[in-house]
């Protein structure tokens, strides 16, 4: 399979490495080669089976519009653009394209989302308070993280759970969800040791998407990959 990777940052590089290890042909475009999506012409995009975007919140929407408009299959690992999700969904459907989005492509995080929902549903009636804390590297542009927002949504039985965002060092990602009462505290913690888990999940998602059309959330398909 031929994969186009948009973004040559730390995660984008790992995505390319993992895709190559899994036997795929890979072409990488960095920001200098793709100013404002200019490289994503219809003939160029048609040469690839799947596009994987790990760019920035500023670049991702331009890339999505260019790729989806020509019916491409796109996996998006970039966060910070979800206010336009409905528009991108409509575009993908109109153009008979495929879009798979996710705030986190780690399998462990997907399980954490399920556990966070269960924790909140079970403890809300007993008077527990809930909170979320997320820590990432200083280069991460969006705060709170998309993953923290997904955890918040999973805990919606408790209303809008507050999120504390911390930016320090080169932390790949730590997410903590807590339920606290006068008598005890229950914590769910996920810590990424690096970005490889995200890259592996994104490549597996691209393999899954390569035979499909429509719009999907990674949390809905991760058990199938």
Number of domains: 2
Helix content percent band: 25-40%
How would a crystallographer describe the biggest sheet? Answer: 6 strands, parallel
> For the largest beta sheet, what order do the strands appear in spatially?
2-1-3-4-5-10
Low-confidence stretches: none
Query: Do you know the CATH topology of the largest domain?
Result: Rossmann fold
Q: In angstroms, what separates the terminal alpha carbons?
A: 16 Å
CATH class assignment of the largest domain: Alpha Beta
Q: Could you characterize what this model shows?
A:
This protein has 8 helices and 10 strands. The chain has a 6-stranded parallel beta sheet, sandwiched between helices. The model has no long low-confidence stretch (mean pLDDT 96). It has helices at 10-21, 42-45, 57-68, 85-94, 107-123, 146-154, 196-209, 218-221; strands at 2-6, 25-29, 50-53, 73-76, 98-101, 129-136, 163-167, 174-180, 185-191, 214-217. Strand 8 (174-180) and strand 9 (185-191) form a beta hairpin. It has 2 domains: 2-105 and 196-224, Rossmann fold; 107-191, Dihydrodipicolinate Reductase, domain 2. Helix 1 crosses helix 7 (196-209) and helix 5 runs parallel beside helix 6. It is α/β, with parallel strands linked by helices. Helices cover 36% and strands 24% of the residues. InterPro entries: DapB_C, DapB_N, DHDPR_bac, NAD(P)-bd_dom_sf. Keywords: Amino-acid biosynthesis, Diaminopimelate biosynthesis, Lysine biosynthesis, NAD, NADP, Oxidoreductase. Residues 108-221 form the Dihydrodipicolinate reductase C-terminal domain.
């Amino acid at each position: 399979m031929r994969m186009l990777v948009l973004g040559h940052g730390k995660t984008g590089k790992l995505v390319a490495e993992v895709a190559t290890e899994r036997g795929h042909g890979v072409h990488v475009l960095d920001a200098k080669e793709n100013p404002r999506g200019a490289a994503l012409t219809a003939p160029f995009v048609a040469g690839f089976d799947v596009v994987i975007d790990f760019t920035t919140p500023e670049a991702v929407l331009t890339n999505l519009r260019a790729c989806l408009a020509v019916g491409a299959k796109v996996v998006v690992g970039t966060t910070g653009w979800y206010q336009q999700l409905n528009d991108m969904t409509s575009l993908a459907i109109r153009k008979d394209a495929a879009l798979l989005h996710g705030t986190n492509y780690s399998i462990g995080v997907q399980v954490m989302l399920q556990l966070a929902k269960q924790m909140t549903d079970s403890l809300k009636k007993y008077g527990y308070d809930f909170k979320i804390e997320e820590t990432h590297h200083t280069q991460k542009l969006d705060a709170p993280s998309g993953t923290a927002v997904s955890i918040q949504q999973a805990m919606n039985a408790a209303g809008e759970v507050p999120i504390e965002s911390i930016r320090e060092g080169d932390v790949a990602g730590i997410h903590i969800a807590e339920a606290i009462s006068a008598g005890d505290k229950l914590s769910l913690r996920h810590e990424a040791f690096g970005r490889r888990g995200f890259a592996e999940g994104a490549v597996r998602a691209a393999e899954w998407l390569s035979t499909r059309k429509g719009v999907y959330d990674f949390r809905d398909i991760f058990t199938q990959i």
